Amino acid sequence: MKKRKKSLEEDLAAIRKVNRGVRLIRQAKRIEKKLHLNRRLAFAAGTAVFLIAPGPMSRKAAAPFTGRNFAHRGLHTRDKLVPENSLTAFQAAAAEGYGIELDVQLSRDGQVVVFHDATLDRVCGVHARVDEKTYDQLHVTSLCGTNDTVPLFSDVLQCIRGRGPLIVELKTGRHNRELCRKTLRLLRGYKGDVCIESFDPRIVMWFRFHAPKLVRGQLSCLPKSFAPEEASRPEAFLLGNCLMNFMGRPQFIAYEIGRKPLTVKLSELMGAMRVCWTSHEWVHEKKNDAVIFEFYKPGKKFKK
User: Fold this and answer.
1) What is the pLDDT of residue 48?
2) Looking at the DSSP assignment, which residues form a beta bridge with residue 51?
3) What is the distance between the alpha carbons of residues 67 and 98, in angstroms, rounded to a whole number?
4) Structural domain includes residue 298
5) Do 108 and 21 share a domain, yes or no?
6) pLDDT of residue 62
7) How many whole angstroms separate alpha carbon 192 and alpha carbon 90?
8) Looking at residue 11, what is its pLDDT?
9) Under 8 Å CB-to-CB from 51, ≥6 apart: which residues?
10) Is residue 45 located within the same domain as residue 85?
11) CA angle 250, 255, 261 (to 5 degrees)
12) What residue ranges of the chain have pLDDT lower than 50?
């Protein structure tokens, strides 16, 4: 009896050890799963930070653009008597002391001209692409039926003469590198505060490596706002969420007014200047570092 009892106790002790071992194995597996999940979450967070992080910018570099209102394509009017991106609009904005936002692209003969659309249809009533016309042809093309014509970027810089900070948007085209090189060459001879921006992260990246001291920004809007001819759905998703910031490391994000994706807000929290477009009322000064406006006259500066 004693031997049986002892054997039974030994068997029970062995079972308890096995059960403890099983529990320990299960516990270890749960810990391993949690660690694996945590590693995956850490990797995802690290990847997100890498993709959306802005570039560094000193307060001195940001100062000329912070708390400023920028006239969208110059101080043009709703009735188009003063057309957008015209010397008259730029002269009016500079005389008021506003910052100015404008667009540059190349003519057929490689001149840097100031014009927004890829085609002349909307502003000039001419069915043709800008890059299909020489500057001599563009120079005699009326803007909105006025005496103003498509200006050279060099003439616009002479007109403004450093009277307000500039935001220069480079349009995506058939010869992006040539546009970047020629724009930078003109800006290096300009005495005034200027920064560049583009919807195209490749252009922003070009300036990151060729002109690192020049403040650069990423233009964007919600993915659904991109036209099909501008970007495919995957491209629109990446661009609209600023997931291509790793290319150009923009120091500001110029985002269309409205809802912003979480990734854009996170990039701003990491230091990207908040620039909004296109404002039609004063209220947008409250939540932004700079405002691109049209069709009203705000103050030149606002407190930040």
Assistant:
1) 84
2) none
3) 11
4) no
5) no
6) 97
7) 15
8) 54
9) 243, 244, 245, 246, 263
10) no
11) 95
12) none
| Number of structural domains found in the chain | 2
Structure tokens at 163: 């009277």
> Does 86 share its domain with 216?
yes
Helices 2-52 & 262-269 angle (0-180, nearest 10): 80
Taking the C-alpha atoms of residue 197 and residue 210, their distance in angstroms, rounded to an integer, is 14
Domain range for 217 is 57-293
Same domain assignment for residues 279 and 180: yes
* Cis previous bond, 278, omega within 30: yes
Are 37 and 74 members of one domain? no
Query: What pTM was estimated for this model as a whole?
Result: 0.88
In the chain, DSSP assigns E strands to: 68-72, 99-106, 112-114, 166-170, 194-198, 216-220, 252-256, 273-279, 290-293
What is the sign, positive or negative, of the torsion defined by CA atoms of 204, 207, 208, 209?
A: positive
pLDDT at position 1 is: 57
Q: Which two tokens stand for residue 170?
A: 């480079």
Same domain flag for 129 and 47: no
